[in-house]
Specification:
The protein has about 250 residues and is α+β, with helices and mostly antiparallel strands. The protein contains 11 helices and 4 strands, in the order ααβααβααβαβαααα. α2 (about 25-35) packs across α6 (about 100-125). The model has no long low-confidence stretch (mean pLDDT about 95).
């Protein structure tokens, strides 16, 4: 296994960082890796906000579900799905562009997240940990105001970076589902109830949780994640952002 594959396999989210700066030259290398990512039609349908203002970091740590480690991260990047830039270019040249639609913003979200993942892989290769913050989608009105987002821009992802503390280096990576349940050939394969139970049973065994009641586990997870207040707020905010593209 080469170094890149090994780093991808071993990489895990890091939420506790050493009190150590990421130097400007290394930050620029990480940012440059984003710009080399695959992109639809070479359009680069994203904008990256480098959050250097400490007060803004603190506000984001609150709006993103009250997670203090965000404010402590040495480096914070927000990846915006951005169709405003192309819409403005077309408008400036008198192209009479249509209003960006749902497909346009989905493509821009893909571009932004691909760019974000390039930075995560690049950071891992030089010993810098990272963590995606999905909560950036929440609190649409507040985030729009904080970041001064125009109509055809929305946050696709936020990533925090830093040198992992020892506790993070030794922490086990969460177990993934078996490949057979995730990869199908040529068509979507919907799992039966029995296959679902088997999928979770195997994952639990690998995680040292053999014998755990799968039904109770899923009910608790559903309440904690899918039915949670933050999930409902995320969906409300996403709908608000998408109004501009409908």
């Amino acid at each position: 296994m080469n170094d890149v594959l090994s780093q991808i396999k071993n990489r895990k989210s890091v939420r506790v960082f050493e009190e150590r700066e990421i130097t400007e030259d290394i930050k620029q290398e990480i940012l440059d890796s984003a710009l080399e990512a695959p992109t639809a039609g070479a359009m680069m349908l994203y904008t990256i906000i480098d959050v250097t203002d400490e007060d803004l970091k603190k506000r984001l740590s609150v709006t993103c579900d009250n997670q203090p480690f965000i404010a402590k991260a040495p480096m914070v990047l927000i990846f915006l799905a951005d169709y405003q830039r192309w819409y403005d270019s077309f408008s400036f040249e008198g192209c009479s562009p249509r209003v960006p639609g749902k497909g346009d913003i989905l493509l821009a979200c893909a571009d932004a997240i691909i760019a974000a993942q390039n930075t995560v892989v690049a950071a891992e290769s030089i010993g810098i940990g990272s963590c995606y913050i999905g909560d950036i989608i929440e609190n649409c009105e507040t985030v729009r105001e904080m970041l001064e987002l125009p109509d055809y821009v929305l946050p696709a992802a936020m990533v925090v970076y830093g040198y992992p503390a020892d506790s993070q280096k030794t922490r086990k990576k969460p177990v993934r589902f078996e490949k057979r349940y995730i990869v199908s050939q040529n068509r979507y394969c919907r799992l039966t109830k029995e296959e679902h139970e088997e999928m979770y049973r195997i994952k639990n065994e690998k995680a040292g949780l053999a014998g755990k009641d799968i039904s109770e586990q899923l009910k608790a997870f559903c309440q904690r994640k899918y039915m949670s207040d933050f999930a409902l707020e995320m969906n409300r905010s996403a709908e608000k952002y998408l109004e501009k593209f409908i």
